[in-house]
Design goal:
- The chain is globular.
- Helix 1 packs across helix 4.
- Residues 1-12 have low confidence and may be disordered.
- The N and C termini lie far apart (52 Å).
- The chain is an all-alpha fold.
- The chain has helices at residues 15-30, 36-40, 47-63, 66-89, 95-108, 111-114, 123-141, 144-152, 164-176, 185-209, 215-237, 242-264, 268-274, 276-303.
């Protein structure tokens, strides 16, 4: 069945039929008499929505609500369908091409399952093999010049299109594969302190100069980037994910600030009228109550 032709011949209600109906719906939205917004979209105009929807999936996972995750996955899938529809209209590729290419890639990159390679017991080993296969494929798929560059550049496999925190973590991991890394987070920690001191010196020099947009500002920004990169590497060496941690921190700030508004009044005028001291006091109370609640929950689980 061509996925762009709908779900003919399939049982109503199964995933194949639902996928076919959804594809037909997107085609109608893009077609004559469809939605002006959908018809106006291009690959370029949709870039921001792909990023937004992928991040909202992470937020839904963080919230632990299956219904929210279901809806956000649907929104992310819509972006895939729109891009495939645009490409189909331009005779670049079809949705069937996307699915067939993904199927072939999954089989090709799991030789321990489909190709007779040695079995793999650890997820980390699967990731390492996946990266190796991906690098070989990237080198083989381009021109001779591109292939040579891919072989020469060990970091070429790290995608620039991902968020900066994720890219920094991937760059550190890739460099670590050839030994350019700290042995562990404990030994990377002094580098974090070093970068923090360098950033502090740079921003103090910048602010003291009164130069709002000159080289001292750029120097402070550069040192800030080094500090963030060092932080991400400590996170990576601990086996954590910087992007996930940032999503969690953002959600925590939203939640706690919402509690401040509930206490002091919603909206900017009420919060400004309360003053900085009241805001800080409310923040500390909210933070203490959250921690006390979490400790109580952990104690109840231990007793159970």
């Amino acid at each position: 069945m061509d996925p762009w032709r709908g779900g003919e011949g399939t049982q109503v209600g199964d995933s194949s039929a639902a996928f076919g109906r959804l594809l037909d719906l997107v085609r109608r939205l893009r077609g004559p008499g469809g939605c002006p917004w959908d018809r106006a979209q291009t690959h370029e105009s949709l870039r921001r929505y792909v990023l937004e929807e992928s991040r909202e999936v992470v937020v839904a996972i963080e919230g632990g609500r299956p219904a929210a995750l279901r809806d956000e996955l649907g929104d992310l899938l819509l972006q895939v369908l729109l891009h495939a529809a645009i490409a189909d209209e331009a005779a670049e590729f079809t949705m069937a091409d996307v699915l067939n290419a993904l199927e072939a890639k999954l089989i090709r990159r799991h030789p321990h399952v489909f190709g007779g390679a040695d079995a793999v017991a650890e997820p980390a080993e699967v990731e390492r093999r996946w990266a190796e296969i991906k690098a070989v494929e990237a080198a083989a798929s381009g021109t001779a010049e591109v292939a040579a560059a891919a072989r020469a550049d060990h970091l070429a496999a790290v995608q620039r299109s991902q968020g900066p925190l994720a890219e920094a973590q991937a760059l550190g991991a890739r460099a670590g594969e050839v030994g350019f890394d700290w042995p562990d987070a404990e030994q990377a920690w002094p580098k974090l302190a070093e970068e923090a001191d360098e950033f502090a010196a740079a921003w103090r020099a910048w602010t003291a100069s009164g130069d709002t947009a000159g080289p001292l500002r750029r120097a402070a920004e550069d040192e800030l980037g080094d500090l963030l990169f060092a932080t991400v590497n400590v996170v990576r060496l601990l086996g954590l994910d910087a992007e996930v941690a940032m999503v969690s921190a953002n959600a925590k700030f939203r939640r706690r600030f919402g509690q401040i508004e509930a206490r002091l009044g919603p909206g900017a005028p009420a919060l400004r009228a309360a003053g900085a001291a009241a805001l800080e006091s409310a923040w500390q109370r909210v933070k203490a109550e959250e921690k006390a609640g979490a400790q109580g929950a952990h104690g109840a689980e231990a007793e159970a």
